User: Fold this.
Amino acid sequence: MTEKLPKVLITNDDGIFAPGIRSLYEGLRGIAEVVIVAPAIEQSGMGLAISVRSPLIVEKVYWEEGVSAYSVTGTPADCIKMALHTVLTEAPDFVISGINRGSNAGRNVLYSGTVGGAIEAALRKIPSMALSCVNYIQPDYEVAKKYVGALMRYLQKHPLPQGTLLNVNFPANVEGETKGLRLARQGKGYYKENPDKRLHPDGKDYYWLGGIQAEFHDEPADSDISFLSQGYIAAVPIYIDELTHHKELEGRREHFSTFFD
Assistant:
């Protein structure tokens, strides 16, 4: 009896025709039933944003024979919402977002559209994963592609708790090899603003926000930032099902209420 292939919905934030999502598909080809729903244009830095002031257009695009692929004029989170409500007749077994061009390690997860797509799935209790290449200029998608199937199989055999996603980053400059995979904690690094002031032809100043990597000397040794700097692939389980700071809730509950009485 032929084993049923898992159904995997893939998305990204670099746009449906980006080379990273093509590599993600190729890493899953033959081991999963893949449906592609991704932004029509690049949506980097959109986080978990959704479109509430503009209509969404969902269009079928040609990928290759026998593959269902759709573009959405919205964000990665929009793509997951529209996939679940207008494209698929049932929830997928997995959602995988990527492969992103550029790092989504450390606190960059709060801005990342790639991670946003995986979060949207995790909020709906669908196992999800985000994949990114740290090297923005020359991302090595081939290295990342080799691990896609193994990572999915790991999550099949060892599922994460509901409301948890796996955020995976591949190190830069590995030249086809890595030191291996490490499960890590979320690091402190993030892209710090670096505004570039320019002059518009109409005489007004404008800015490109830009960004440079902010580094911390007290970066934990077991963080994704630290492991990536050593040449390891870093995977962080991110829990988004409960955002309450319980210690503060319990410690402040009584005097918070009486303060306003």
User: Anything to note?
Assistant: The chain has a mean pLDDT of 91. The longest helix spans residues 141-157. The first strand starts at residue 7 and ends at 11. The CA atoms of residues 4 and 32 lie 9 Å apart.
